[in-house]
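Subgroup meeting minutes
Present: P.N., E.W., G.H.
Scribe: E.W.

1. P.N. recapped why we're keeping a running log of single-chain structure predictions: easier to compare across weeks, and new members can see raw inputs and outputs side by side.
2. G.H. added today's entry (330 aa).
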Amino acid sequence: MQTTTLGRGGPEIGPLGFGCWAIGGEWQDLDGNPLGWGKVDDDESVAAIRRALELGVNFFDTADVYGAGHSERVLGRAVAGRRDEVVIATKWGNSFDETTRTSTGAVLTPAHARQALTASLRRLGTDHIDLYQLHTGDAPLAVGAELRDLCEEFVAEGLIRAYGWSTDDPARAAVFAEGPHCVAVQHQCNVFEDAPAMLDLCARRGLLSINRGPLAMGLLTDKTGAGSRGAKGDIRAVPPSWLRWFGEGGGALPEWVARVDAVRSVLTSDGRTLAQGALAWLWARSELTVPIPGFRSVAQAEENAGAREFGPLSAAQLLEISELLAPEGP
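Output recorded in log:
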């Protein structure tokens, strides 16, 4: 599969990146509800990142709030001395307490953005961020325009190379797309959550479509998280309203299990695992997609990276999945 550039003249990345939410470990909201994926082994996380690099995956997406700064620190440790080999994306827009590992809410001021960028650079051990992304998906449009212009200042100062907005709203993404150095939008997209309007915007504006949730928080995998979804500290054990696939305790709801089973044979065709098939669906959906599956082990890194050997699903397979998931008529 071909590589692409992160913006005109930007660094090259492959068709696959790795999302670093899970390796941030445990953190919580102000009510004590988990926001991470449970306990992690930092040494294993570092080994997984380095294994990904060996396999040719060089794009890593994190956020300052993941693990209340811990994800950035782990990623920085893993790529220390190899900065020229990696393309780093991170996000800002949320405040947090590193000591208690607690997210304390969105802050959308320019002053906070500059403070957040300085802190991310320090935790990552780098002098620049390749892709800096606004992490508050529902920020007002006027605020988004102000922060877009601020990102242009960061580019001019050499602190970032490019920027984007992590949002599921095409109108908000379009506001950032007005900026000369906006190169991507990060949005939810997977077999169960298509995003035609956002993909159309990316095609019209020449933006990369960075896909979070490509494996539906572990639903579209055979093994990932299967033994830990009910564990203390795992967001899937106490799912917020937007996490519709899981019930209390972390078990996948029966109706979603049925949908996975309906498309399993297509996704696992040609020797793919279920996760590899889910990534292949995204590549078939648009040539602009760059899915960023999460990982917590070397084995998961190897499985996700292995999806590139199979390439995208065929147009016929894409159509078959669409028909299998189509709602029944009256």
